[in-house]
Amino acid sequence: MALDNKIPQGSISSKWTDYKDHIKLVNPANKRNIDVIIVGTGLAGGSAAATLAELGYSVKAFCYQDSPRRAHSIAAQGGINAAKNYAGDGDSIYRLFYDTVKGGDYRAREANVHRLAEVSVNIIDQCVAQGVPLAREYGGLLDNRSFGGTQVSRTFYAKGQTGQQLLLGAYSAMNRQIGRGKIKMYNRHEMLDLVIVNGKARGIIARNLVTGEIERHSAHAVVIATGGYGNVFFLSTNAMGSNVTAAWKAHKRGAYFANPCYTQIHPTCIPVTGDHQSKLTLMSESLRNDGRIWVPKKLEDAQAIREGKKKPTDLAEEDRDYYLERRYPSFGNLVPRDVASRAAKERCDAGFGVNATGEAVYLDFAAAIERYGKEQARIHHLDENDPKLVYDLGQKVVENKYGNLFQMYYKIVDEDPYKTPMMIYPAVHYTMGGVWVDYNLMTTVEGCYCIGEANFSDHGANRLGASALMQGLADGYFVLPYTIGDYLADDIRTGKISTDLPEFVEAENNVRSMIDHFMNNKGTHSVDYFHKKLGKIMWNKVGMARNEKGLNEAMDEIAALREDFYKNVKVLGTADSFNQELEKALRVADFLELGELFAKDALHREESCGGHFREEHQSAEGEAERDDANFSYVAAWEYKGNPREAVLHKEPLVYENIKMVTRSYK
What we know:
Domain Fumarate reductase/succinate dehydrogenase flavoprotein-like C-terminal: 531-665
Distance between the termini: 42 Å
Largest sheet: 5 strands, parallel
Number of helices: 18
EC number: 1.3.5.1
Organism: Paenimyroides ummariense
Active site: 337
Strand content: 5-15%
Subcellular location: Cell membrane
């Protein structure tokens, strides 16, 4: 099957507008006769459900949480990008487009990224109209702050809880349509298979997680909006329930899976403390606006801190290595996430880590507190040479900007980050890879769409901070409602899709067979036993740094672990009731297949780019070395029954508007 990305002709600045001018439309009177299933109700799915229902379609929305308000989008803390240039510092649609392509190390599709930059300006207006309480300056205008990989302030935010506030906006829009009967909401339901009839996605098989009932649901199109697959590493910043199942089931039904090895390691996570942990907690990238990252300059100081003989505040300024400012003077602490993560790993590997495990660096706000304190003292005509006064004034400013984040850190670590630097270390966060989609956001299965983090399309090999919320809302509010209409225009006379078709029966039997296997398996180990083993293989051999030997070993080890899992997993409880162990077993089964494809993808890509760092392909300074001549393409994998046998399809990446150069933040 040839990969047709369906990118329209014309200049980059007019593609999207011209495309919308010429697509087929669905008459408002016909939309009520068309059903759309949306799986996942985070920012992408929630905004899509609300918008499609507002347009008149009959929407069925599914989430495994007890409410769409619990979607993992609420965990996004720092902000949402938009090219509105409110700060007047030179931002533009083109600059957001350029920063995103460069930040993704020239491995994103130009047309999609430019469209994202275009519609970003509408997202903020939409959210303000919904009442989202975005931060404002003294005069009442919306405020902006900077994020990594940019030299402008384009990130709109709501303190340190931007994702939550944006999700409440989308949820309120959904609720209005639920009340009108245009959205039928299926809480506590999980999609376990995709149903294809005559080559088109026509429904799903879902399990009611409360009763265990297996249900058939039909529609004229299916939209996957279930987020990323970072939990293949077991420990990640994702919610424990985050999984790959819906996307993977679509993959096994014919949707190509693109660039699975493109996984983001976020540099500002609270460090791992031991095997007892089930997830990790992220400290927002927004903290890098004011926090300075450092380690001791001397090995003996790092050793003394690890042994508890010294505190970070004991070290004089000249004894601290602000290594990001040293290595990347143009961007300093605001380099992109992949660059900051590798730099932290390099320092810790060299012995300069500062916690008991040796895997932590400092994020220090002392300089910001002093700077803000003196500024406030001048504003209020107070003594800027009074250290206590300056500290108190500065702390209040920092608290107003980041207070809930500081409180969260204090609750978890039991150290006051106002008085002693935070400790941070890289951790798995976002997945740039995902289901392959064309310009319309349709997968290689006709009628099956994929939006938000679940698809691969907008971030290349590395996502810039504050762009996840932007993509989710762009896809849901402003892209999918146009592109899906072009497809559904041919279904106005189709009528309801029967769930009695043999394809629904086959898919339901497939699900029941899998559930029966797990419930009747006489194993001896829990699901978490296998998930943790998978996570350690992934982190140690497919994590921040990868090499040929480790990737080959990982593929063999994951295949063996998968075989052991099916033989020896033990699932307690019953299938006809609320059973979280069964839920986890079904999800981990998919992770065990994804993990092997992930390693295969990383092995085939003989280059370093963005979050994919092959140790064999780095410069003398330890920077990533791309191979544009051989790997400037999207790697889209076709399922063939076993991850190792997946077939590679290539979508060439053509850059007509941006010159491909070696990425530099120095």
